[in-house]
Amino acid sequence: MRKLIIAANWKMNMGPQEAADFIDSFSQKVADAKGVDIVLSPPMVSLAAASSKLAGSSIGLSAQNVSENDNGAFTGETSTLMLKELFVQYVIIGHSERRSIYGETDAIINAKIKKARAANLKPIFCIGETLEQREGGQLEAVLRTQITDGLVGVSVEDLAETVIAYEPVWAIGTGVTASAQQAQDAHAFCRSVIAELYGQEAADKIRIQYGGSVKPANSAELLGQEDIDGALVGGASLDPQIFADLIHNALT
Ligand code: PGA
């Protein structure tokens, strides 16, 4: 059985003080949540504060991005070793906002995944189609390309430490969620692509999160689907009570 993984993606919200206050309140609210990996992804500038608050906690810490380079003249970038120094365990790679606003290609995303794994960070590898692509009948082709090109040269051992986040772009921050059936179908398809690339055992093991307007009211239905192994949550992760409710509902 795959263990659920529910991750907050705070995007460009929550400075160091807010992040620390959130963790104080949230940790108590989810102290009883068992059988689920919970991960918080603050912005870079808040990682240090979050890291000291989370010392000794079972709640995981993720960055929202990482450089594909080691060090040097890359203004504004953050390396894997800098993240490791702050005890970061996961990193979101290839979020649709990084793809669409900052021009990240499948090749860049692939380089970042490999760089993350070389530092033993666990990638949360995001994929997903636009509405235009879905309506144009390209859903499977888009997902297949993103998965295949994003994972070029990634070993089966490194895949085992990777989480995939399926996030239909049209459902992110819009309040429109994919139906449980639409999400399940996409997840089953992604798993079949992993089976083609890495074999059935790897496909059975990999965790695939759903992301896109997940909230307390729909987390149980979405995460109850056979191939949905967790959630990547934006808006509904910014309030400790709402995010805790979302997690508790998913576990019922
Ligand atoms: P949302 O964002 O939950 O606000 O739709 C999800 C994401 O972008 O990861």
> Per CATH, what is the topology?
TIM Barrel
Strand order of the largest sheet: 1-2-3-4-5-6-7-8
The major beta sheet can be summarized as: 8 strands, parallel, barrel
End-to-end Cα distance: 17 Å
Helical residues, percent: 40-55%
Mean pLDDT over all positions? 97
Structural class call reads alpha/beta
Assigned CATH class = Alpha Beta
Kindly summarize this structure in a few lines.
The protein is of the alpha/beta class and 252 residues long.
Question: Keyphrases for this structure?
Answer:
252 residues, alpha/beta, 8-stranded parallel beta barrel, 12 helices, 15% strand, binds 2-phosphoglycolic acid
Structure description:
The protein is of the alpha/beta class. The protein has a single domain (4-68, 76-251), classed as Aldolase class I (TIM Barrel), CATH 3.20.20. Helices cover 44% and strands 15% of the residues. It is built from 12 helices and 8 strands. The chain has an 8-stranded parallel barrel with strand order 1-2-3-4-5-6-7-8, surrounded by 5 helices. Helix 2 links the parallel strand 2 (36-41) and strand 3 (60-63). Helix 5 (106-118) packs across helix 7 (139-150). The longest helix has 19 residues, at 180-198. The protein is globular, with a radius of gyration of 17 Å. The model has no long low-confidence stretch (mean pLDDT 97). Bound molecules: 2-phosphoglycolic acid (PGA). 2-phosphoglycolic acid (PGA) binds next to strand 8.
